[in-house]
Specification:
The protein is an alpha+beta fold. The chain is built from 16 helices and 12 strands. It has a domain of 123 residues. The chain is 43% helix and 23% strand. The protein is globular.
């Protein structure tokens, strides 16, 4: 265990500070016990726990050598063994992480968000790597792409499932598949199909969110939103592009043309949630569009435009929504505004938890590392909902509060 200097802090903690740190420790132990059944051998179990704690630590880079050093190993052999040869099922562990997150963060109007993120790579040996679109730069880069599912509520948001996108250049190449250990059962799937797999897995486990949100990659895929409607009767708000085809009455149209036909009275000024500078306000409008026999549900085009200047097409965002007929436009605005939660999940996981720091090349190695990162993020997110009321009740100007409320101190204590 690392030692914390007592020059600025009292040696013996009392009150809310002591309660908070005890809660941190007990929650970590409980979390580890929950994950224990998914490891056949105690060595792999302990290595996984050490790995998660290293991901939680202040180590700058979460690669094999630095993780090994952080947990006290002379070489990265045990880390490599955990990610490659040890006997444990990353998919089952990911399912447990999803259940843990849902139980800890559950609220009405919860959301499953789908999005992908890229991982820059050198060379062509890492599974799934090729020159493809990399969202961070907006350019084509040599990278891997993972599709992720996040769980978002008012209590917090965390990544809860993952799929590695396997391009056709890999899916159809037997030699590449063999070298990277891609299972024979894995076939080429679009990003939208990978999203369906994750949502179906959650539904099969009894987890049904009130909403599903996603960006244009998924909103522009008719097969994806049709599946949400017909298979799950699932409410959604999906970003689409301005050329999205729709039918209103007997007339086919495009989203941009529909938007341009709106009268000033159809726009409402609404907030889509709090931002760093206060309420994020835009002008919103919607138009009902054909959706066949959907019972009590209706499909809409929803439009959002910036307040300044409101008359330029480039300042309009387009959404397709599906929900009960009595759903208000204000509700659509709130739901659309929460999609940023998955972007925050990526930012935290990459900057603090080593999501992109891995050095593995195999199919198994990628899924194991990513799953352990998901576990670390889920633990921190649920922990925050449990200890925040305690830390907020303390005097935020006191050294005692700084010690109790510091995530960095928790990381040090848990090593």
């Amino acid at each position: 265990m690392n030692r914390i200097s007592t020059d600025s802090y009292p040696v013996f903690l009392t009150g809310s500070a002591l309660d908070t740190i005890c809660h941190w420790s007990n929650t970590l132990k409980s979390f580890q016990q929950r994950l224990s059944p998914y490891f056949a051998r105690c060595e792999a179990r302990q290595a996984a726990f050490n790995y998660i704690q290293a991901l939680l630590s202040p180590v700058e880079r979460k690669n094999g050598w630095q993780i090994a050093e952080q947990v006290g190993n002379a070489t990265p052999y045990r880390v490599q063994h955990l990610l490659g040869r040890a006997q444990w099922d990353a998919d089952k562990l990911a399912q447990e992480v999803r259940q843990y997150s849902a139980a800890g963060l559950n609220e009405p109007d919860d959301i499953f968000a789908v999005d992908e993120t890229g991982f820059l790579k050198q060379g062509n040996q890492s599974v799934g790597v090729q020159v493809q679109y990399y969202g961070t730069t907006g350019h084509l880069e040599n990278c891997q792409v993972g599709v992720f599912l996040a769980y978002i509520t008012g209590k917090g948001h965390t990544l809860v499932d993952r799929r590695l996108y396997l391009p056709k250049s890999w899916a159809d190449d037997a030699d590449k598949r063999r070298k990277a250990g891609v299972p024979e059962t894995v076939k080429f799937a679009t990003k939208a199909q990978l999203a369906q797999q994750m949502l179906q897995s959650a539904w099969d486990a009894g987890l049904r969110s009130t909403w599903v949100v996603a960006d244009e990659v998924y909103g522009n895929d008719a097969g994806f939103w049709w599946w949400l409607e017909k298979t799950g009767q699932q409410s959604y708000v999906l970003t689409v592009n301005k050329k999205q085809p729709v039918v209103i009455g007997w007339q086919p149209d495009r989203a941009e043309a529909v938007c341009q036909s709106l009268s000033p009275e159809q726009w409402q000024r609404l907030s889509c949630g709090q931002g760093s500078k206060g309420e994020r306000e835009y002008e919103w409008a919607r138009v009902a569009i054909n959706c066949g026999d959907s019972g009590d549900f209706q499909r809409w085009l929803v439009f959002r435009r910036s307040l300044e200047p409101p008359d330029q097409p480039q300042h309009v965002s387009y959404y397709q929504a599906f929900a009960p007929k009595d759903t208000s436009l204000a509700t659509f605005a709130k739901v659309a505004g929460k999609r940023w939660g998955i972007e925050e999940c990526f930012k935290l996981a990459k900057s603090q938890l080593g999501l992109a720091d891995y050095e593995v090349r195999s199919w198994v190695g990628w899924h194991r590392h990513i799953t352990l990162v998901l576990a670390a993020q889920a633990f921190l997110t649920v922990l925050r909902t449990q200890v925040e009321p305690t830390t907020q009740s303390a005097d935020s100007s006191s050294p005692l509060f700084a010690l109790a409320g510091s995530l960095a101190v928790f990381k040090a204590l848990s090593e």
